[in-house]
Amino acid sequence: MREGLWIERRRIGLVAVVAICLFMFSVVPAQAVKVITMIGTDAAPEQAHGAVRFRWLFDPDDDIHRVKMRFNAEGLLRRHGRVYSLWFVDGQTGQTLLLGTFDTDRDGSAEFSQVLQINTLDYYERLIVTSEPQNDMDPRPDELIVLRGISPNQPRGSN
Hints:
The protein has 159 residues and is an alpha+beta fold. The chain has one helix at 2-27, and strands at 33-40, 49-57, 66-74, 82-89, 96-102, 110-117, 126-133, 145-150. It has an eight-stranded antiparallel beta sheet with strand order 5-4-7-8-1-2-3-6, with no helix packed on it.
């Protein structure tokens, strides 16, 4: 009798663990981190490159979705009177979203991070870094693109 009770308790415990795991995997998306590699364009020095890392921050008590973005780049030239801007670009509509503006250190490196309030990255197919005039009042990206990255959501060959 005791052995049967012990087996039943163990079975209930195992069912509880499986239920908790299933709940966790249904709440937390499989892709909680996304990394996008950026490569230099013809307008950038040959060694210019970068990466953007997105990590979802989950709060079950909050309806607002937050994503921590961390950007780093190397090999960019420091230009007097100009700064760099990181943008999301929607390939279908051309709509852009400014993610941040930065300058490089003497070695051509840059790094910054911030928390974004955004539900999904699926709408934005490309990331670009542009070189902008320092006090630019134009809300659109400059045509001088120095780095570009393709979201993993975008089909290959549709750049």
